[in-house]
Amino acid sequence: MADPISARPPEGATGVLVLADGQMIWGRGFGATGAKVGEVCFHTAMTGYEEIMTDPSFASQIINFTFPHIGNVGANREDVEAKTLHALGCIVREDVTAPSNFRSLWRFDSWLKDHDRIGLAGVDTRALTGLLRKKGAQNAVIAHDPKGQFDIPALIETARSWAGLQGMDLARSVSTHQSYNWQEGIWSLQNGYSVVDNQKGPHVVAIDYGLKHNILRNLVEAGARVTVVKATASFDEVMAHKPDGVFLSNGPGDPAATAEYAVPVIRQLLDIKMPIFGICLGHQLLALAVGATTYKMHQGHRGANHPVKRLDDSKVEITSMNHGFAVATDSLPEQARPTHLSLFDGSLAGLELTDRPAFSVQYHPEASPGPQDSYYLFTKFIDLIAKERP
Ligand SMILES: NC(=O)CC[C@H](N)C(=O)O
């Protein structure tokens, strides 16, 4: 490798990804200018870049998209998973084109710029993915300057001195500050989003560690009346809403760090046999609450076609995944039964408690983006509540 400090950008480079080990990946910057530090990881979904960029689970992450054409349907108000973009930026193969979609409101690059997110185009994203598979997710800086002037030593230092996601609680920073009700169902081409009034349905309190809107929509479609509360809500604050069931959401960062304030609340909910359903970070927190441990994965799972084996009937669900931490299967206590396994690496993809009405999955059944094989889990939760709280 060339001396990283003296390596010059190729002609016309207006963007760069600087890895903590000093490697530089040059390209054409787009979106906002400046520099941002985070973890660079790769995502293999072929569609759904709006959902991915707005998913709060991607806070402090830079997404390297393996699909080469990203941004070509622009951005709209319907496909977002949160009010703003949460991924720090993205790396793409092809330059962003003008949007070609009747729903598009913004060009992808101006959408990034408006939300202070940096893009890097013209990168050999396959080679970068190869590097990330080999070395694992990397701490890095993504930078964009239209004049192509970069203080490389300073960027390397920023990437090197960033603490990394391990030990980092990010749920608190992306969570809502105030409780609110949610009534929107899932989107259809004919009707867009409809308001679903489930006043008589079971009341689900969703703890927002960084939740995605499509999870709330699926809970509503399954029949729940939904109230969202902040990540740091106490047991009493949760119970003040008189829940029939509690949902633990997905979210960014290290589950072991978020556990400090989330686990005591979950344990109290388990003690009163509250029906619980957790997704992704919520799954990890449920596992931590019963004494299991989590670990940081080498490269993580991020894509929309991850096969998962359902152990009860050996059926395979094709799932959407986005996680960089996982629950250590061998750390599960006796009363936590593995229900799903990743067919990519055998890691734990779901569990169920045998002595409490609680279950969780590591993947994203709300399928946003991705296949809808696992929508049934939302109904399973509502059925569980009906059984436990007739
Ligand atoms: N989507 C999520 O909830 C991600 C959970 C956790 N931050 C992880 O990376 O494993």
UniProtKB/TrEMBL annotation:
GO terms for biological process: 'de novo' pyrimidine nucleobase biosynthetic process; 'de novo' UMP biosynthetic process; glutamine metabolic process; L-arginine biosynthetic process. It comes from the Bacteria. Residues 1-202 are annotated as: CPSase. SUPFAM superfamilies: Carbamoyl phosphate synthetase, small subunit N-terminal domain, Class I glutamine amidotransferase-like. GO terms for molecular function: ATP binding; carbamoyl-phosphate synthase (glutamine-hydrolyzing) activity; glutaminase activity. The keyword Cell inner membrane does not apply. Keywords: Amino-acid biosynthesis, Arginine biosynthesis, ATP-binding, Glutamine amidotransferase, Ligase, Nucleotide-binding, Pyrimidine biosynthesis. Pathway: Pyrimidine metabolism; UMP biosynthesis via de novo pathway; (S)-dihydroorotate from bicarbonate: step 1/3; Amino-acid biosynthesis; L-arginine biosynthesis; carbamoyl phosphate from bicarbonate: step 1/1. The active site is at C280, H364, E366. The keyword Amino-acid biosynthesis applies. Residues 13-143 form the Carbamoyl-phosphate synthase small subunit N-terminal domain. PROSITE patterns: GATASE_TYPE_1. Signal peptide: none annotated. L-glutamine binds at S57, G251, G253, L281, Q284, N322, G324, F325. It catalyses: L-glutamine + H2O = L-glutamate + NH4(+); hydrogencarbonate + L-glutamine + 2 ATP + H2O = carbamoyl phosphate + L-glutamate + 2 ADP + phosphate + 2 H(+). Its EC number is 6.3.5.5. Belongs to the CarA family. Composed of two chains; the small (or glutamine) chain promotes the hydrolysis of glutamine to ammonia, which is used by the large (or ammonia) chain to synthesize carbamoyl phosphate. Tetramer of heterodimers (alpha,beta)4. Small subunit of the glutamine-dependent carbamoyl phosphate synthetase (CPSase). CPSase catalyzes the formation of carbamoyl phosphate from the ammonia moiety of glutamine, carbonate, and phosphate donated by ATP, constituting the first step of 2 biosynthetic pathways, one leading to arginine and/or urea and the other to pyrimidine nucleotides. The small subunit (glutamine amidotransferase) binds and cleaves glutamine to supply the large subunit with the substrate ammonia. This is Carbamoyl phosphate synthase small chain. It comes from Zymomonas mobilis subsp. mobilis (strain ATCC 10988 / DSM 424 / LMG 404 / NCIMB 8938 / NRRL B-806 / ZM1).
